[in-house]
Design goal:
By secondary structure, this protein is of the alpha/beta class. The protein has one domain: Alpha-Beta Complex (Spore Coat Polysaccharide Biosynthesis Protein SpsA, Chain A), CATH 3.90.550.10. Strands 5-4-1-6-8-7-9 form a 7-stranded mixed β-sheet, with helices on both faces. Strands 2-3 form a two-stranded antiparallel ribbon. Helix 3 runs antiparallel to helix 5. The radius of gyration is 17 Å and the shape is globular. The relative contact order is 0.16. The model has no long low-confidence stretch (mean pLDDT 97).
């Protein structure tokens, strides 16, 4: 089974509570969940948050939306992913983060299909798409090796650091995208107040409801 694990917590340093802030007409998390409803690949969505009391709100959100919730370590994100994937029996895991309201589901479908067809252990599209639009997928075997071999503090703070630092140990692929989407210099994540205000502008001016990547790139260039 393929799982999509969305890491989410309310304790952001630069923009506290951002994942439940309203962007135009729905919360940031709602934007992601609503986009994933159009995914064609068969995948189970889980929101992985921490056990801190402040993240009870995330569990409540999941309960209200009918989305699975997993709670684990706040600081050891690698462990949170590993324990969640192990509990659900995922063979492949897509990693998404809850500060990216404009994830490209069309490219996510292609990423999952490419990963499986090529027999990769880790496949990514984040180097090709705008910041916050791409994703990555890895096999459970790769995640398990990551968990067993990780040794530096940053390996546990970020799920993919050990894999990216030891590329020779894994079969790694990159999804190629069309030229009109290949804009890795464009910032479409929400990490600061300025990012949030820009995201609100894009969502409010989108003609498609959930802005396509091309539309978000255009609106981003118009935002002042």
């Amino acid at each position: 089974m393929t799982g999509i694990i969305i890491q989410a917590r309310t304790g952001s340093t630069r923009l506290p509570g951002k994942i439940l802030k309203v962007i135009h007409d729905r919360t940031l998390l709602d934007h992601i969940i609503d986009r994933l409803k159009s995914l064609k690949e068969d995948a189970l969505v889980v929101i992985a948050t921490s056990t801190l009391p402040g993240d009870d709100a995330v569990e409540s959100f999941c309960r209200d939306k009918g989305v699975l919730c997993f709670r684990g370590s706040e600081s050891n994100v690698l462990s949170r992913y590993y324990e969640c994937a192990k509990e659900q029996g995922f063979a492949h895991i897509v990693r998404l983060t809850a500060d990216n309201p404009f994830v490209d589901v069309e490219e996510l479908d292609r990423l999952i299909a490419c990963h499986k067809a090529c027999g990769n252990e880790f496949t990514e599209s984040f180097s090709q798409l705008p910041i916050g639009v791409g994703a990555e997928i890895f096999s459970f075997a790769a995640l398990q090796e990551d968990m067993e071999q990780a040794s530096m503090p940053h390996h546990f703070e970020h799920v993919d650091e050990y894999i990216l630092e030891n590329r020779d140990r894994f079969r790694i692929g990159t999804l190629e995208v069309s030229a009109d989407k290949n804009r890795p210099e464009v910032r479409l994540t929400v990490d600061t107040q300025e990012d949030y205000e820009k995201a609100c502008y894009i969502a409010a001016h989108s003609k498609t409801g959930l802005a396509t990547t091309q539309e978000a790139i255009t609106l981003c260039s118009q935002y002042v």
